[in-house]
């Protein structure tokens, strides 16, 4: 009947409307999901360092950053600040070699001359006598091993170095056997012991206290005893006295009457 047709048409109309609404919601949410996914993907590309930047990203990088990195000048290396506090520069390598070989360094005649006497007690093996050959060997060893160290050739310059430490410009050694003298050390005197009178001629770059130089020499006591590298006849070499031999007029900033490490009772003789 007509009434049934109207009801069927109304039901069909509702179904069409419901289907349309469902299709609209489906398409709307699908579009939203695609938009959100695109935003997440873009964000991850920015944060992830493994993703290569796009040309747009490179174009937007500030040009001043790269420019500053390439145009910054390279500063030349400077000397450590504590070198500026030194009164005298450290010896050069060539000067150290010349001192070890007892070669005169040009300009040393213009320096202040200071002489110091050392008393050595030298024990030889068995009944060996102190010949001129052995004396020369001992003096050569002192020249090669002790004097460069005294000048400061082996010092690593740092903030703990005294400002006057490199005052010695050049140095050489002379000496002889004191045959009339006996060793003062009773233990050594009971052996084949010989007294040696050693003179150090130092050329100074400036005026310092002689007591400071005496302290530098006394610091070499262990090197004299153990690091000379002498041949077998030498059993013991012991530093026993250090004296200042340079007379000075009084008053002066470097008087010569400072106490020595151990006053010497024998004369110091220089070979002619």
The proportion of strand residues reads 15-25%
Q: What is the global morphology?
A: rod-shaped
Order of helices and strands: HHHHEHEHEHHE
Helix residue percentage: 25-40%
Overall mean pLDDT score? 78
Q: How many angstroms separate the termini? A: 157 Å
Q: Indicate the low-confidence ranges by residue numbers.
A: 40-73, 75-79, 250-254, 256-272
What does the radius of gyration come to?
A: 45 Å
Strand order of the largest sheet: 2-3-1-4
Number of E-state strands:
4
Q: Which structural class fits the helix and strand makeup?
A: alpha+beta
Number of helices: 8
Main beta sheet strand tally, sense and closure: 4 strands, antiparallel
Q: What would your notes on this structure say?
A:
- With 272 residues, this protein is α+β, with helices and mostly antiparallel strands.
- The chain has 8 helices and 4 strands, in the order ααααβαβαβααβ.
- The protein has a 4-stranded antiparallel β-sheet with strand order 2-3-1-4.
- 18% of the residues are buried.
- Residues 40-73, 75-79, 250-254 and 256-272 have low confidence and may be disordered.
């Amino acid at each position: 009947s007509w009434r049934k047709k109207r009801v069927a048409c109304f039901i069909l109309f509702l179904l069409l409307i419901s289907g349309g609404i469902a299709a609209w919601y489906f398409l709307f949410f699908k579009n939203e999901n695609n938009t959100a996914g695109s935003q997440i993907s873009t964000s991850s590309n920015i944060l992830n360092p493994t993703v290569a930047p796009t040309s747009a990203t490179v174009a937007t990088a500030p040009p001043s950053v790269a420019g500053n990195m390439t145009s910054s000048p390279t500063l030349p290396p400077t000397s450590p600040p504590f070198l500026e506090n030194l009164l005298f520069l450290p010896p050069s390598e060539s000067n150290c070699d010349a001192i070890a070989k007892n070669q005169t360094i040009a300009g040393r005649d213009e320096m202040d001359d200071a002489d110091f006497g050392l008393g050595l007690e030298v024990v030889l093996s068995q009944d060996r006598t102190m010949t001129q050959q052995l004396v020369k060997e001992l003096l050569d060893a002192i020249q090669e091993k002790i004097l460069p160290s005294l000048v400061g050739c082996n010092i690593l310059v740092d903030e703990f170095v005294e400002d006057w430490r490199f005052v010695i410009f050049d140095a050489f050694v002379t000496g002889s056997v004191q045959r009339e003298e006996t060793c003062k050390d009773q233990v050594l005197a009971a052996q084949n012991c010989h007294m040696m009178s050693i003179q150090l001629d130092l050329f100074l770059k400036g005026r310092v206290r002689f007591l400071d130089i005496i302290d530098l020499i006394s610091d070499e006591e262990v090197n004299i005893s153990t690091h000379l590298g002498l041949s077998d006849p030498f059993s013991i070499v012991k530093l026993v006295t250090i004296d200042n031999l340079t007379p000075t007029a009084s008053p002066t900033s470097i008087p010569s009457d400072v106490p020595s490490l151990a006053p010497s009772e024998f004369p110091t003789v220089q070979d002619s």
